[in-house]
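This section describes the prediction task in plain terms. A model, or a person checking by hand, is given the sequence of a single protein chain and must write out its three-dimensional structure as a string of tokens. No templates, partner chains or ligands are provided. The sample shown here is typical of the held-out split.
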Amino acid sequence: MNCVWEIALKAQKSGYNLEELRFINSGSPSPYTESSFDFLNSDTIEESEIEVNPLYRFANELGEVFLPDVKGYEKAREIFLDVIMHYVAVWDLRSGGDKKELKAMYILKEIESGAFLKRFRETLFHLGFEKAKRIIFCLLDLYSCGDYITIFKKALRELYPNSNLYIHSEDVKKLILFTGVDKTKKDIETIEMLKDMFLSLSYEMDVFWKHHFGVIGVGESMRIGEIAIY
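The expected answer:
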């Protein structure tokens, strides 16, 4: 977690309302993050008291108040920081740049409750919260542009960064997917979910897993013992 808006969202997921959080000035802030968690990849909020670095984004505005060498009025400055960070969190969450995040969180909540995309719930949440959220981002992109193939490729790369998607030379409605991973029950279900979520029913798709099919003239695809036959 980095900015306070993300802290607020993760806190809600962890059972805390924004008004229950108390933001305090970090004793050892990082110049590269607004939060001061021991583990940047942490996905939960375990305490209501949150250390932040108010100078991460607002050094010009708040430097004279919260620089380390500023002394005096400690209690007043504590209250001021807490109020400002709550205001910033609400401002961030309501800003246009975070509207997509809020939509994704709402959709994930609906899926978790079984009100929406119920048949994908187990497979989607098995990916982990962050990956599931990125897939929902892709779903929102699809609703906006309607470009099935481009968004499907984007969703694939979120989960399978080494994947390649090809269009069959004789049939534009037939796709060939190379995932670059071992074939497992979990991954079969994940690919089926992505296919159902992002492709229209008119598309067919053949899936290749760890071994790429051979392409004449492309040396990397013609390695002995690492070629899939198509």
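For orientation: The chain is about 45% helix and 10% strand.
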